[in-house]
TrEMBL record:
<dbReference type="Pfam" id="PF06847">
    <property type="entry name" value="Arc_PepC_II"/>
</dbReference>
<feature type="domain" description="Preflagellin peptidase C-terminal">
    <location>
        <begin position="310"/>
        <end position="338"/>
    </location>
</feature>
<feature type="transmembrane region" description="Helical">
    <location>
        <begin position="124"/>
        <end position="147"/>
    </location>
</feature>
<keyword id="KW-1133">Transmembrane helix</keyword>
<protein>
    <submittedName>
        <fullName>A24 family peptidase C-terminal domain-containing protein</fullName>
    </submittedName>
</protein>
<feature type="transmembrane region" description="Helical">
    <location>
        <begin position="62"/>
        <end position="83"/>
    </location>
</feature>
<dbReference type="Pfam" id="PF01478">
    <property type="entry name" value="Peptidase_A24"/>
</dbReference>
<feature type="region of interest" description="Disordered">
    <location>
        <begin position="215"/>
        <end position="274"/>
    </location>
</feature>
<dbReference type="InterPro" id="IPR009655">
    <property type="entry name" value="Preflagellin_peptidase_C"/>
</dbReference>
<keyword id="KW-0472">Membrane</keyword>
<feature type="domain" description="Prepilin type IV endopeptidase peptidase">
    <location>
        <begin position="13"/>
        <end position="119"/>
    </location>
</feature>
<feature type="transmembrane region" description="Helical">
    <location>
        <begin position="35"/>
        <end position="56"/>
    </location>
</feature>
<dbReference type="GO" id="GO:0005886">
    <property type="term" value="C:plasma membrane"/>
</dbReference>
<keyword id="KW-1003">Cell membrane</keyword>
<feature type="transmembrane region" description="Helical">
    <location>
        <begin position="95"/>
        <end position="112"/>
    </location>
</feature>
<dbReference type="InterPro" id="IPR052218">
    <property type="entry name" value="Preflagellin_Peptidase"/>
</dbReference>
<feature type="transmembrane region" description="Helical">
    <location>
        <begin position="319"/>
        <end position="343"/>
    </location>
</feature>
């Protein structure tokens, strides 16, 4: 294989993106630090290649800067915009912004008898091709989910194409949201990470919650509280593991007589019982940093009721978007733009 030095260095995105995709499947967590080296490399390569085009002596020089501008000022803002409206997770947006910086123009790799990518778009913005491939691949996820549910006998439209049914025990390592509330199906159910946060805050397992639901609904049943973490799967102390989470110094504590002392300057504010705080949902949200993924006391109570009363629940698992992004990037390097290639083959372009 032969390629320019910048194009060879850009291949570093593949192992990093592959690792991030695996992390997205396993934990839905990818550290921001993952992208720093690639962003630095991208900026370095942009500066390197820009020097060679500064003369603007040919149309190719001008086109280079046009493509870089589209990548930086269109693709990157698209990634941020999708994150802002909730269409992307933070890691998804950061990955695409990184790609916009590192891969603004099509690389070229020469082999004996052929060149990759095979299909180069007229626009020639490689990050846009990766975004297109990713969206096309991600669009197949609901279809695959629906086929799996139909084959399993779970035929409910449109629920079968947007969710999956699992046992309540499976929530310990599941991702996404509950697709059920006490009132019925809803895509705005309790975030499963927030459920894990609540369980860790109370030092409970799912089995303990279900076995003692009547007692645990009473806010005065809250004992010593613990660090809720961020709800990630696999944290020590989750779901009834042997080691309990560490006590949280920021969370409300409980007096030895069972009455919870509310957090306040004087320590004499009204208790959760006085505010009829079923499940101590308000106390939990008041006692943690952040909003627990946008959870409200009502949403938390509804989710806990569903989990406490049912043996199986529907969840909306969401898409580990870094997976289609990784596959879309691989296809972009090996083939090019999927949609452009299909349209070209059909004679549309």
């Amino acid at each position: 294989m032969f390629a320019s030095v910048p194009d060879l260095l850009r291949l570093a995105v593949l192992p990093v993106l592959g690792w991030a995709a695996w992390r997205d499947i396993e934990t839905r967590r990818v550290s921001t630090r993952t992208w720093y080296p690639l962003v630095g490399l991208g900026l370095l390569l942009l500066a390197w290649e820009s020097v060679g085009h500064l003369a603007l002596a040919t149309s190719a020089d001008v086109l280079f800067f046009v493509r870089v501008a589209i990548s930086l000022f269109l693709v990157a803002p698209i990634a941020y915009g999708f994150w802002w409206i909730g269409g992307f997770g933070g890691a998804d947006a950061k990955a695409l912004i990184t790609i916009a910086i590192l891969l603004p123009t099509f690389p070229t790799y020469y082999f004996l008898g052929f060149t990759l990518p095979e299909v180069v778009t007229t626009l020639g913005v490689f990050s846009m091709t990766i975004l297109t491939n990713t969206v096309v691949l991600a669009a197949g996820y609901p279809l695959a989910l629906g086929v799996r549910n139909v084959l399993a006998g779970d035929v409910r439209f449109p629920v079968s194409f947007l969710g999956t049914r699992i046992t309540v025990d499976g929530l310990s390592d599941a991702h996404g949201r509950l697709y059920e509330t006490p009132e019925g199906f809803s895509r705005n159910g309790l975030d499963i990470d927030a459920l894990r946060m609540y369980l860790r805050w109370r030092g409970l397992s799912l089995d303990e919650l279900r076995a003692d639901a009547d007692q645990l609904r009473d806010p005065e049943s809250v004992g010593e509280t613990y660090d809720p973490t961020d709800g990630a799967v696999g944290v020590e102390g989750d779901g009834g593991s042997e080691s309990a989470p560490k006590p949280s110094s920021d969370a409300p504590s409980v007096e030895s007589d069972g009455g919870m002392a509310a957090e306040s300057d004087g320590g004499d504010a009204g208790t959760a019982a006085e505010t009829d705080d079923s499940w101590a949902a308000e106390a939990f949200l008041d006692g943690i940093d952040g909003s627990a993924y946008g959870t409200t006391p009502e949403k938390l109570r509804g989710g806990l009721e569903v989990v406490a009363e049912r043996d199986e629940v529907w969840i909306s698992p969401g898409i580990p978007f870094l997976v289609p992004m990784f596959v879309g990037t691989l296809l972009a390097f090996a083939y090019g733009d999927i949609v452009f290639g299909v349209l070209e083959a059909l004679g549309v372009l």
